[in-house]
Write a structure and sequence with these properties.
With about 375 residues, this protein is mainly alpha-helical. It has one domain: Glycosyltransferase (Alpha/alpha barrel). Helix content is about 55%, strand content about 5%. The chain contains 14 helices and nine strands. It has a three-stranded antiparallel beta sheet with strand order 7-8-9. Helix 2 crosses helix 13, helix 8 packs parallel to helix 11 and helix 11 packs antiparallel against helix 12. The protein is globular. The chain starts with 12 loop residues before the first helix and ends with a helix.
Length: about 375
């Protein structure tokens, strides 16, 4: 299939069920979801794939995935960055966005199933993961990329990683509200993190080369809700021609002719959240030549070489496809997780209005320069 247009009420369930079936086939008995058969697992992509399973109605498999996270979470709330099943492959660091992302997956599960008992059972893991990430927050608001195995905090932060944590904090606050847990300090941490993402570019990429060449740095603040309202449209239009290749998708990096499916799907969700539904539907329609007969999707397509590259079909890419399809078709009650902000009502209005104004001002100033 070359093009596939979906919209609310138009969702080819059997077509996407194959993608969830692929994730389930790769999943191990422990619940671990590696990137692909005999591949490694990282804790963030594991959650992305689990959410894909939930969308397709594979509740048992998704719960097994969250069970793996519960069993392998370290005492301080973190995870190692790579595993082979339950065995750590890398113990050099613990990444902040890995620890926090469990909150996003657990809230996604609750939105679909409304299972309060499961939410309560996973709450200690969610709480521990968020607290780990917040211990790495600087007085300037950004959250450091990782804690090194010698106990030192890595002295730099990622826009993409911090944006992911920003969304995870929103989900964690929603869980806390549901369980009647008071976490005002999480809201304050999220507010300061949002300010850093929007207003303090000097707090990112201080010790390594700039990540601005990566498309995720461009659209993740929109995807996470850190840049809402009209400012989201302005941000996405600003680098559209840099990253988007018509009829193919979104490039991973600006300087390589390499369109990647997962980034394209995440851009789709950012566009839906920014009110650019038509653009989102078109980009999603372009991606399905990257799909094979099993329902899996190749990582990406190298334009100049006219080939799929690398020769991998990640489970997290299939998960991103399912998340984007749900955002467009609104199949599950979790369809708007990445397309709108849903803070507890007492916190939502003032925070998002202020953030929208600041982000809009920043985009206008950037355009003038």
């Amino acid at each position: 299939m070359k093009n596939l247009y979906i919209s609310k009420g138009l969702y080819p369930k059997n077509y996407f069920s194959l993608s969830a079936d692929y994730i389930a086939r790769v999943q191990l008995a422990s619940g671990a979801i590696p990137w692909f058969e005999h591949g490694l697992l990282d804790p963030w992509d594991h959650i992305e794939a689990a959410m894909g399973l939930s969308i397709a109605g594979r509740r048992r498999e998704a719960r097994r995935a969250y069970g793996w996270s519960r069993a392998n979470q370290l005492p301080d709330g973190s995870f190692w960055p790579a595993y082979a099943d339950d065995v750590p492959l890398d113990s050099s660091r613990k990444e902040s966005h890995h620890a926090a992302y469990l909150a996003t997956g657990i809230w996604h599960d609750f939105l679909i199933h409304r299972d309060g008992a499961f939410l309560k059972r996973m709450w200690p893991c969610v709480e521990a993961g968020i607290e780990f990430a917040l211990r790495l927050q600087s007085p300037n608001g950004e959250i450091a990329w990782s804690l090194l195995n010698d106990g030192s905090v890595y002295p730099d932060a990622l826009i993409t990683g911090c944006s992911s944590i920003y969304k995870s904090l929103e989900c964690a606050l929603c869980i806390a509200r549901e369980l009647q847990e008071e976490k005002p300090e999480w809201f304050e941490a999220r507010r300061r993190l949002g300010e850093a993402i929007r207003d303090k570019p000097d707090r990112f990429d201080r010790t390594w080369s700039s990540k601005a060449r990566y498309s995720m740095d461009w659209f993740y603040p929109v995807l996470a809700g850190a840049c809402p309202g009209s400012a989201a449209k302005a941000r996405l239009s600003g680098k559209w021609d840099v990253f988007v290749r018509p009829y193919l998708g979104c490039c991973c990096v600006a300087d390589e002719p390499w369109v990647t499916v997962a980034e394209s799907c995440e851009l789709v969700m950012a566009l839906v959240g920014a009110g650019e539904y038509s653009k989102a539907a078109h980009i999603f329609s372009w991606l399905h030549h990257n799909r094979d007969h099993s329902g899996a999707y190749w990582t990406g397509y190298q334009i100049d070489l006219n080939c799929y590259w690398p020769a991998e079909r990640p489970t997290w890419t299939a998960g991103a496809v399912l998340l984007a399809a749900d955002a467009l078709a609104k199949v599950t009650p979790a369809a708007e997780l990445f397309t709108r902000v849903s803070l507890p009502e007492s916190l939502e209005d003032s925070e998002e209005f202020e953030a929208g104004n600041k982000c809009q001002q920043q985009e206008l100033q950037s355009a003038e320069r």
